[in-house]
Amino acid sequence: MQTFEIKPKVGVGPIRFGMTREEVRKQFGSPEEGDQDREWYLDDMAIDFDASGRVTFIELAESENFRAILDDKCLHELAAEDAVAHVQRIAEYDPNAPEVGYAYVFPALQLSLWRPVLPENDQDPDDPTGRHFEAVGVAADNYFPVTSSQ
């Protein structure tokens, strides 16, 4: 299993923001699927390209093929509340971003955590549903704006 270090505003593992599609393919080979905006690699890594064909966003789904590490912790392996607390040691999340609870956006790091559901209050303790984030997003500078309170 590969380990990819998350470097906020820089990239993930060998992928750097601003790299061309061809440079990404030199690292990972041909994409498993994709279109002009997004290509998939290693089953669970989506790389988004801007209009000029340069990397602008990397989404890492929970995977058996790699681990996504930020400050020595795999964000997919931590309980959701622990993952938020771990990232908050570095920067605060935007409390006004849409879907807080399901998603946490850390604008200073250009990083997001996402899960499709929240755990239920009466959920069996052995049921993992909603207890971990399924996706970590890492973006180039200014991808995630800071929202204002309304």
SSE blueprint and pairings:
Elements: E1 2-7, E2 11-12, E3 15-16, H1 21-28, E4 33-34, E5 38-41, E6 45-49, E7 55-61, E8 66-70, E9 73-74, H2 80-88, E10 103-106, E11 111-114, E12 135-139
Parallel strand pairs: 1-8
Antiparallel strand pairs: 1-2, 2-3, 4-5, 5-6, 6-7, 7-12, 8-9, 10-11, 11-12
Notes on the structure:
- The chain is mainly β and 150 residues long.
- The chain is 11% helix and 32% strand.
- The chain has helices at 21-28, 80-88; strands spanning 2-7, 11-12, 15-16, 33-34, 38-41, 45-49, 55-61, 66-70, 73-74, 103-106, 111-114, 135-139.
- It has a seven-stranded antiparallel sheet with strand order 4-5-6-7-12-11-10, covered by helices on one side.
- A hairpin with a 3-residue loop joins strand 5 and strand 6.
- It starts with a strand and ends in an 11-residue tail after the last strand.
- Spatial order of strands in the largest sheet: 4-5-6-7-12-11-10
Poorly predicted runs are none
Report the sheet-strand fraction: 25-35%
Record field, number of beta strands: 12
Radius of gyration, taken over Cα atoms and rounded to an integer in Å: 16 Å
As an assembly, this protein is single chain
**Given the C-alpha coordinates, what overall shape results?**
globular
Give helix and strand order, one letter per element, not per position: EEEHEEEEEEHEEE
End-to-end separation: 44 Å
The structural class is mainly beta
Q: Profile the largest sheet.
A: 7 strands, antiparallel
Helix content: 10-25%
